[in-house]
């Protein structure tokens, strides 16, 4: 029976959902610290060089044209204000005509937010708050529905291939060929509970995201004059909705040697497709991360049974969800895309304490793939 009044950690039993949450929070903190260390080592020397180079240019310019540093700083502040309003040294497309505004609202509702265009009026800022609230929610719903249909199509294709392979593997019984009815019946019974592996779905979505990014990079390299690696960088930043704004596509008034309208349509298509693919990939990766957390929790149960009560010994313990362990720990079946089991917290209170970004169980139940 689980220990209730203290343990080696100095506290009572920890709920599995809370343990998973704390483990994920610890992972994110460590991940942020490692990322900060890597980017600081890579980018900080470049920042120092740029700052020293700018100081030298500033001094040289002020001396050459006999300008005081105060006057020059005031002029540069004025330029920064103009830059925020969309004024650039090179000619670019208007920011707030209808097509420019349409590009802006697209970056808002998709949560990309490049930052090169921002509302300057009070009315625009207030309207953006309400507009973004509904628009972002609707777009996230669209991405979820897109993922549902992608998973449904992948599941149908994989299940059809699995059934075809299974039918070919059926051997004759007693020297006679198995009848089509018996073969179909046996295949139906075996495939009744079959679901696609989450790793297979992740691989397919990853391949689709890479393909879209590579094709889009070719277009951006040719139209914008960027290097191919820079174009790939832009694709990931845009498709993942990070949207730094250091590189933004389709900002020129016209593109020499290219059909401007065709390029703008291609840009819209690739950004929409890329965001859908990357968003779907993030969702599936989150399921894999949750499976790894469950596996780690199982490993942590052995040294500290008080913090993680043994299954079947705690009277109020909920059934485990998403218990999918890597490799040999899962001998009976592969991890499938449907990873949530029905549990008390979902059926009674209608909420998931530790569900994925979307509920795979819910949309697969609504989009059952049947093989007749």
Summarize the structure.
With 372 residues, this protein is an all-alpha fold. It is built from 10 helices and no strands. Helix content is 61%, strand content 0%.
Question: How would you sum up this structure, described in words?
Answer:
The protein has 372 residues and is mainly α. The chain starts with 15 loop residues before the first helix and ends in a 6-residue tail after the last helix. The chain is built from 10 helices and no strands. α4 packs across α8, α6 crosses α7 and α7 crosses α8. Belongs to the two pore domain potassium channel (TC 1.A.1.8) family. GO terms for molecular function: metal ion binding; outward rectifier potassium channel activity; potassium ion leak channel activity.
């Amino acid at each position: 029976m689980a220990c209730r009044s203290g343990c080696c950690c100095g506290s009572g039993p920890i709920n599995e959902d809370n343990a998973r949450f704390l483990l994920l929070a610890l992972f994110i903190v460590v991940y942020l610290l490692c990322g900060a260390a890597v980017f600081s080592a890579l980018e900080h020397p470049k920042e120092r060089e740029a700052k020293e180079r700018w100081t030298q240019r500033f001094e040289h310019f002020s001396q050459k044209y006999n300008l005081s540093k105060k006057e020059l700083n005031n002029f540069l502040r004025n330029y920064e204000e103009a830059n925020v309003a969309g004024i650039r040294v090179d000619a670019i497309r208007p920011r707030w005509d209808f097509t420019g505004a349409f590009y802006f609202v697209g970056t808002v509702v998709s949560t990309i937010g490049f930052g090169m265009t921002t509302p300057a009026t009070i009315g625009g800022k207030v309207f953006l708050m309400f507009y973004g609230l509904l628009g972002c929610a609707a777009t996230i719903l669209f991405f979820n529905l897109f993922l549902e249909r992608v998973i449904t199509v992948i599941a149908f294709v994989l299940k059809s291939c699995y059934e075809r392979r299974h039918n070919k593997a059926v051997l004759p019984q007693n020297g006679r060929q198995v009848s089509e009815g018996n073969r179909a019946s046996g295949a139906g019974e075996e495939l009744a509970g079959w679901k696609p592996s989450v790793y297979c779905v992740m691989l397919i979505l990853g391949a689709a995201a890479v393909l879209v990014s590579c094709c889009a990079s070719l277009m951006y390299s040719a139209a914008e004059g960027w290097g191919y690696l820079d174009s790939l960088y832009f694709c990931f930043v845009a498709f993942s909705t990070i949207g730094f704004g250091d590189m933004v596509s389709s900002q020129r008034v016209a593109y020499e040697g290219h059909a401007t309208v065709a390029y703008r349509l291609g840009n819209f298509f690739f950004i929409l497709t890329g965001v859908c693919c990357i968003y779907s990939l993030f969702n599936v990766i989150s399921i894999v991360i949750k499976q790894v957390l469950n596996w780690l929790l199982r490993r942590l149960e052995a040294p500290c049974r008080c913090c993680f009560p043994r299954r079947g010994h705690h009277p109020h313990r909920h059934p485990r969800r998403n218990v999918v362990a890597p490799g040999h720990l899962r001998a009976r079946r592969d991890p499938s895309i449907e990873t949530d089991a029905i549990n008390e917290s979902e059926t009674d209170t209608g909420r998931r304490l530790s569900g994925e970004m979307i509920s795979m169980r819910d949309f697969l139940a609504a989009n059952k793939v049947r093989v007749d």
